[in-house]
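Hi R.,

Here's the chain you asked about this morning:
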Amino acid sequence: MPNLAKLLKDEIVRLARRELKSQTAALQRASTRQRKDIAALKRQQLQTEKALKALAKHGGKATAAVMRPEPEGKAGFRFRADGFRALRERLGISAEQMGKLLGVSGQSVYGWEQKKTTPRRSQLPAIAAVRAMGKRAVAERLAQAKK
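And the predicted structure, written out as tokens:
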């Protein structure tokens, strides 16, 4: 015959654990949300400190680039060599031509595609701009660059 006290105790423990789990789930979600907010604030603080250093470096002269905060979601472009190579092939241009569009050498483009080097952070917006262009726009820009 089973021990009734042990069965009752086991059932109480099971129910207590279930209740605790449901109550702590809300706390865990709140904690996760707060951690994300803290990380965003840290990123914003670093950006502000960089802008402050740039202002100090330029003698207090505010420039549009320094004072303009980066838009949310556009803070950093991600560069992938495979995607960059596919972009160049989709546009039907050579690495040298891609370099002219971006203001770099063709050798730099080859290095990026072969994952030997990566583009500078300052070059990423230009890459993003080329990514938004079509074949005709690229051909027009290359024709203007030849003139």
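The chain has two domains: 1-74, 81-146.

Let me know if you need anything else.
M.
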